[in-house]
Amino acid sequence: MIRFDLETPRATSRRAAGGRRRRALFVSSPIGLGHVHRDLAIARELRAVVPELEIEWLAQDPVTRVLEHAGETIHPASRWLASEAAYWAAEAVGHELNCFEAFRHMDEILVANFMVFHDVVSDTPYDLWIADEGWDVDHFLHEHPALKTARFVWLTDFVGHLPLAEGGPREAELTADYNAEMVEHIDAHPRIRDRAIFIGDPDDAVQERLGPGLPTVREWAEEHFDFVGYINGRPAITPEARGAVRAELGYGEDEHVCIVTVGGSGVGEALLHRAVAALPVARERDPRLRMVAVTGPRIDSGGIPSDDGLEVRAYVRDLDLHLAACDVAIVQGGLATTMELTANQRPFIYVPLERHYEQMIHVDHRLRRHRAGQRVRFADAEPEPLAEAIVEQLAAPVDYLPLDPSAAHRAAALIAELL
Amino acid sequence: MRRARHPDEQGHVDNNGVRIFYEVYEHDGPTVLLMPPVAFAHSRVWKGQIPYLSRHFRVLTFDGRGNGKTDRPTHPAEYGPEQFAADALAVMDHTATAEAIAAVLGPRSIAAVRMAVDHPQRVAGLALLAPDLFAEREFADAWRVADDEPHTGFGAFNPHLMRSDWPRFLGEWSRVMFPRPHSSRQIEDLIAYGLETNGETFVASTIGNRYPPQDEVLEMAHRLRCPCVVTQWGVPMWPARTSEIFARAAGAPLVVFESLGPMVSVRWPVAVNLLLREFAESIRDERDPDYERWNGPIAVGVARPRRAAGLNTTERRRETDDCREPR
Fold it and tell me: Taking CB atoms and an 8 Å limit, are B5 and A82 in contact across chains?
């Protein structure tokens, strides 16, 4: 008789066998660097609460670079992970990235990477698995609950695939179908996620419906998540300390520093060019303007023409410090960078990637709630309006909602209860 | 860019004038040969298996005649199980593969069975995933439906529709293949694979596959010498149950995937990966496979399912005997 049954949830042991030290596996999404910084903050807090906890990371480039720098232990099987970052970079066309379709078509990579995860946890007993938007882990554990053999924590900063008008009825139907599957997964197996932690506040969850006949994102998230507030990777610098940081970075008191960054993925080169094109126009109105354009490792910095007041840099160490010290920034609509600027009360212009529902809807909603940043559509990011927005932002008073610095601690406390 | 793992070697091998495209993913042995399904799809149906299995075994795959980067002969006589088996052997010869554990999906399983029976020294194991091994009455009925009748659902399996409106056939049939909800990606993929060939080629390949009578297939099952595992889908609407009879005759374990359609490896790649790894490792390590290793103690507060995926053969037989037509 054969029972090849992966659908029935199996018992998970709460306590480490044989009195060994307790061990956690942390899966940190490589789609953007925002996850790893907050995950490191959570890990630090978690170790403060459970000092003997050993944390290993299953992660890939560019996340592993940050982890190595932080002295963390990267599981050797990480090298088997198929690259998600390279995949996303390749999916972008100009300043457009249809993130829903890109996610759907990542199915092969998600299966491959889940199998790496499964091999790792089959070979080594962990007490706890933490996945920060490790979509493969969460999805396949719900498909095959028998494969869950440890406590599992799910972290995310948004809930629900949402359709954009440009996607027409097909996109509306497909996003609803994906959301319905998520809702059904949680209904059928409410104990797969021992903790589901939303990196934000209930007000950060949008009011859009998950689909026809389904609850709104906010309703469903409130029912199924703990909200810990936004976790910023590094504490914001105080206004008093800003002068010293600026001096250290070589930014003068009397200059207006504009940082342009599009993240490390190579998506967003088009925006860099737009920002650079706006510089001469902006400098006519504000001669003190100095622009620092950060290309990141995947964009050819030589392709950007030089100009007065422009500095093109392939790599900037401690970019978050530069963002915290700048006078204005031009960025994509990614959550981590915009919230970094929000935490530091810096003026900024954000240009969401077109067709990217997370940036267009979820992040946009959160930034509006925090009264942070000025949104510019990419189509409108021509030199004249962009220059105007830069000058406007430099003069505008900043009155963002403050972030609660204890969010990482709160997340860690929720996780530690499982150990 | 969308591939999780790229082949270490790829190319074409000539089998009596038909060029067969193959891929090799190098690793220590044994070699797992992932055989292509029927001609509306090609070797990419294994995209959920290749990255995983190739971390544990050497993996070989090829596009079956009629689709992918392999030639598309036009005559049904070019699509017999013996040609298909010869294609597989040609690929194995070309890649210096003395023997392989063969995994096959769907109706072309008959070719893999023939290869295992006729060339026992080349086939170290046989995993038959949802195989249609002999003609089912329902298939024959659908095939014979007149031109003017509606070709929907199961009735879409009809040469009139295949020839006159290939995309519509693919749309109808891919939904039959994936009855489980939330299968939009799998359906999309199957249609895309199908659009790489055409209805005329598919009709030729279907006629050429020449489903043998049940007696002949069961006789082959008795002659099988290598380890074998058989899976079956578990959708009640689906009439074909050839797997179970074959498994019984071959003395092979039968694994049933409840609520899934025929393309189990596509819709549930993780489950099939674990099954195939266990099968291949048991052969490599010369031990009995343990398909129950994931069945730990059931979680507290969880009701034992009335019917879990993977029923025992006896129960399954009782359920299906009543509805099977004598042949």
Answer: yes
Cis bond upstream, residue A215 (ω within 30): no
The token duo for A136 is 């493969």
Residue B186 makes CB contacts below 8 A (sequence gap 6+) with: B174, B177, B178, B263, B266, B267
Give the span between the Cα atoms of B289 and B278, in whole angstroms.
6
The mean-pLDDT minimum among A163-167, A292-296, A390-394, B249-253 falls in: A292-296
Please tell me which of the candidates A86, A113, A116 has its beta carbon nearest to residue B1: A86
* Residues ≥6 apart with Cβ < 8 Å to B140: none
User: How does DSSP assign B199-250, residue by residue?
Assistant: HHHHHHHHHHH-PPPHHHHHHHHHH--S-EEEEEEE-TT----HHHHHHHHH
Which chain A residue has the Cα nearest residue B186? A107
What ipTM does the predicted assembly reach? 0.94
Would you say the pTM of this structure is higher than 0.90?
yes
Q: Domains of chain A by range and CATH?
A: 17-231+406-416 (3.40.50.2000), 239-395 (3.40.50.2000)
Nearest Cα to A238, choosing from A149, A325, A350? Answer: A325
On chain A, the residues whose CB falls within 8 A of the CB of B51 are 82, 108, 111-112, 115
Residues A3, B48: C-beta atoms closer than 8 Å? no
Contact A38, A199 (CB under 8 A): yes
Q: How far is it between the farthest Cα atoms of chain B? A: 62
| Residues 6+ positions from A242 with CB-CB distance below 8 Å | A324, A325
User: Taking Cα atoms as reference points, which of B223, B221, B229 lies closest to residue B289?
Assistant: B229
Residues of B numbered 242-271 whose beta carbons fall under 8 angstroms of chain A's beta carbons: which are they?
Answer: 253-255, 258, 268-271
Is A112–B184 a contact, with Cβ atoms under 8 angstroms apart? no
Tokens of A376: 């510019």
Q: Give the integer Cα–Cα distance in Å for B153 and B150.
A: 9
Rg (CA), chain A: 22
Closest residue on chain B to A104 (Cα): B185
CB contact under 8 A, A3 and B1: no
Q: What average pLDDT does range A99-104 have in this prediction?
A: 96
Domain map of chain B by residue range?
A: 9-134+210-321
B55-113 residue pLDDT tens: 999 999 999 999 999 999 999 999 999 999 999 999 999 999 999 999 999 889 999 99
Q: Give the Cα separation of B154 and B136 in Å (integer).
A: 12
Tell me whether A143 touches chain B (CB under 8 Å). yes
pLDDT tens, position by position, B121-175 = 999 999 999 888 877 777 777 788 777 777 788 889 899 999 999 999 999 999 9
Instruction: Say which DSSP state A223 is in.
Output: H
> Can you say whether residue B144 is alpha, beta or left, with left for phi > 0 and alpha for psi between -120 and 50 degrees?
alpha
Q: Provide the mean pLDDT of chain A.
A: 93
Q: Which helix (H) or strand (E) covers residue A55, if one does?
A: strand A54-58
CATH class of B9-134+210-321: alpha beta
| Contact residues, chain B, for A10 at CB < 8 Å | 294-299
Over residues A236-245, the mean pLDDT reads 93
Q: Output the six-digit token pair for B311.
A: 């029923």
Counting one residue from chain A and one from chain B, the pairs whose CB atoms sit within 8 A come to 137
